[in-house]
Amino acid sequence: MTPPTEPHLPHSADEAVEVAREDARFGIAFLRQRWRRLLLAFAGLLLPLWGFGELADDVRDAEPFPFDAPVLQFAQGIARDGFDRAFLLFSKLGYQWGVVPVDVVLVLGLAAMRKLREGLFAGIAIIGSALLNLGAKQLFARERPTLWESIAPESSFSFPSGHAMGSITLAMVLILLAWHTRWRWWVTVPMTAFVLMVGLSRVYLGVHYPSDILAGWAFSIGWVVGAYLLVFPHRQRPWQPR
């Protein structure tokens, strides 16, 4: 009976060194080709999801965040009629007056242009973010702040912020679609400012804790970057011919 074949093992120190060199060359070549995607996966997917997990653990355990109450009290202290109007506007633009209509136009517009991969990415990111927000609110069931009576009260749960998730989802979709074009910074700068103002408006109006906003941003960034890496595999970028 023929004995089973044993796996090949290096028979000398020189052969072992050569195998190690080949492995190292392969690893270096892999990193050179894909370091950008690895960096995007780490900074845009793993870190945000880790941050969301840390916030979610404390919310689940009903542990207060030391920065929530002071930031809300500061927002109440600077309240003025002019600020009321401005932040009410950004709050509405962050959902029914701005983000939702733009989401619909973006997905339908990409489909009409036959940009199927881009439209698929936008649809997965936007619809998935909305569903994740609904599920997370029911899961954590965090009550909204009650430090004062808001001029724009809300009745749903607080964690994570739907306005924060919706606005940054749209921003991240547009930024990732524009990143390899000449419109990169023309999209990134105003959308970043818009996301910040929407988040600030929800705290100013007293309907969200700052931790709700941070959790919404982190959750959505991780989701959108994950969808991007899934829909656009290695060497595939938005707007390339199919």
From TrEMBL:
Keyword Transferase among record annotations: no
Listed Gene3D superfamilies: Phosphatidic acid phosphatase type 2/haloperoxidase
Protein name listed in UniProt: undecaprenyl-diphosphate phosphatase
Domain of life, per lineage: Bacteria
Membrane topology category: Multi-pass membrane protein
EC number of the protein: 3.6.1.27
Top class in the EC scheme: hydrolase
CDD domains reported for this sequence: PAP2_like_2
A Pfam family reported for this protein in Swiss-Prot or TrEMBL: PAP2
Transmembrane regions listed in the UniProt entry: 35-53, 94-113, 120-140, 160-179, 186-207, 213-232
UniProt keyword annotation of Cell inner membrane present: no
Domain Phosphatidic acid phosphatase type 2/haloperoxidase residue range list: 119-230
Catalytic activity: di-trans,octa-cis-undecaprenyl diphosphate + H2O = di-trans,octa-cis-undecaprenyl phosphate + phosphate + H(+)
Location of the protein in the cell: Cell membrane
A molecular-function term among this protein's GO annotations: undecaprenyl-diphosphatase activity
Source organism: Thermomonas carbonis
Sorted UniProt keywords: Cell membrane, Hydrolase, Membrane, Transmembrane, Transmembrane helix
